[in-house]
Amino acid sequence: MPKRILTGTVTSTANKQTVTVSVTRRFKHPVLQKTIKKSKKYRAHDENEQFNVGDSVLIRECAPKSKTKRWEVMNDEMVAEHEKVRAEAAAEAQKVEDAAHEAEAAH
To answer: For the whole prediction, is pTM greater than 0.85?
Structure first.
């Protein structure tokens, strides 16, 4: 199962190797059809303590690091690896789609 990746803003760096990241999501209310913004705070592991308050970061799910930390901040290598995997998956999906179109055109 793929790990979830969220984008958020660092709101606190008070603890050692830990940052608090606020993630905001927007969705339509099911009945009122009004756009609603909700935010949630996640505690994420920051191994090198390289992020400061106000930085925009990507966090991904991981095995529990402590009682409250279930996320880790993605560094440049992790982001590059993630983009590579996404590009490969998109290319594979494109091949499948092209094959389906060719099969449909043959009929």
So the answer is: no
